[in-house]
Amino acid sequence: MKVMEETISGAIVRRFFNKLEQNLSVDVAIVGGGPSGLVAARDLALAGYKVAIFESKLAPGGGTWGGGMLMNEVVVQNDAAEILHEFNITTVPFDEHYHTVDSVEMAAGLIFGARKAGAVIFNAIKVEDIAIHEGRVCGVVINWNPVVRLDMHVDPIVITCRALIDGTGHPSEIINKAVHKAGVSIDSPTGGILGEKPMWMEDGERTTVENTKRLYPGLYASGMAANNVQGGFRMGPIFGGMFKSGRKIAQIIAKDLEA
């Protein structure tokens, strides 16, 4: 008879590596488990696509947990609140235009909704590179985030995908790799990354959705990553544009994968 410790350790190891093996090839890989990525993950998973999120931090959710300056409330517009209601996240009307949301409930609800829709989330995983074959992005190169942070010489592994979303927020980490390491020209005014502008909430909310697009075959950007690429303004603790960006990129990818 196995001792309890062996059973528990064995269950974790077998289940995790089964999950990893089942997701070595996916339809859509999303780098960054922030609000736009989680909305996109849920929509695409519900549409029947195999979706995996790779989040470098221990807890997905992006910048939503801390609300505004550690006051754990955020704001969404009326039409964006409707998306949160699909996740069964509570919103409270503030005036005729805006709702407030408990940021902890929002982060937890988005994560739970994406996972229950069928998206698989791998946390503490760093995407350190991308794979490009014959002019198309076709995979992510992953390693344990602690390995990368400690600068240990440990080779990574590759997850192949049909579509890759950069949902890394302000740094646009994946697009940076495509532009500066792979030397590709992306769909932007300069073919490169324009960089994020200062705060302008109204314009930032608008352009976050407008800038959400396919940037290169197989490579997409959502949320603040999309805004950073196209030179949009930041918007702070209002999140409607993030949710609408996630929905838009899911629709674009679904259409592309059906073609």
Q: Helix/strand/pairing class, anyone? A: alpha/beta
Largest sheet: 8 strands, mixed
β-strand amount: 25-35%
Q: What is the general shape?
A: globular
Which series of helices and strands comes N to C? Answer: HEHEEHEEHEEEHEHEHEEHEH
Uncertain residue ranges: none
Radius of gyration: 18 Å
Distance between the termini: 54 Å
Let me know the average pLDDT: 97
Number of strands: 13
> Please, how many helices?
9
Helical content stands at 40-55%
Plain-language structure description:
With 259 residues, the protein is of the alpha/beta class. It is built from nine helices and 13 strands. The strands form three sheets. Strands 1, 2, 6, 7, 8, 9, 11 and 12 form an eight-stranded mixed sheet that branches. α2 packs parallel to α9 and α7 runs parallel beside α9. It starts with a helix and ends with a helix.
Structure summarized in a few sentences:
With about 260 residues, the protein is an alpha/beta fold. The protein has helices spanning about 5-20, 35-45, 80-85, 105-115, 145-150, 175-180, 200-210, 225-230, 240-259, and strands spanning about 25-30, 50-55, 75, 90-95, 100, 120-125, 125-135, 135-145, 155-165, 195-200, 215, 220, 235.
